[in-house]
Structures are given as C-alpha cells and as structure tokens.
Write a structure and sequence with these properties.
single chain, alpha+beta, 2 helices, 21% strand
Length: 101
C-alpha cells in the first residue's frame, strides 16, 4: 500500500470527479466526508456526498488524509504574521471599529 511522503502512514489514492488525485486514510470512517467506491476498471473514485446525491449503497465514507496527517496539520494552522515596521494591521482596526467599512 502506498505511503504518505510527509508522515509515512499508509494511504489510499483516489481520483475525484474533477480528475484530481486525493489521498484518504485506508480505513472507512463514518465521520468522514468523502465517499469512495471502485469503478468498473478497479480505480478508486471519490466524491463529496450532498443532499442532491447522498451516499450510495456501494460507497463507503473515508477521511481525507490531509485532515489527519500530523505534518500537514501543522502547516495548515495559520500563525500570526509578523508585519514589517510601518505597516498597520487593518484587521485589528476593523475589529475595534465594529466591522464598519
């Protein structure tokens, strides 16, 4: 089974409806938000279930690996930016002004 290059955990590679590759954790998870199934050629396909197209009987829910990969989770959490001297933080001003523009 292929492994994630960042954390070395096993992953399943799927192909989305848009033709992009998406890694998911290898075990199905009812809390996941990605429906995975195998098409006629054996390729794992993935999609996001919706109200219009809910989870089908032949699909199982998986969690995208990017949501559980420890190195990726650290890089996706934003840290406060350090602004150079002379640059004002307008977001702080907007919070004080009550959101008025």
């Amino acid at each position: 089974m292929p492994r994630c290059l960042d954390c070395r955990r096993e992953v399943l590679w799927t192909v989305t409806d848009a033709g992009k590759r998406l890694a998911v954790d290898p075990e199905p998870d009812e809390t996941g938000n990605t429906a995975v199934y195998r098409d006629g050629t054996g390729t794992r396909r993935s999609r996001r279930p919706s109200e219009e197209l809910p989870l089908m009987a032949w699909e199982k829910l998986y969690v995208p690996h990017v949501a559980t990969c420890p190195p990726r989770r650290k890089t996706t959490q934003k840290s406060p930016a350090v602004l150079p001297p002379g640059v004002l933080d307008l977001a702080a001003y907007r919070r004080r002004a009550g959101g008025r523009s």
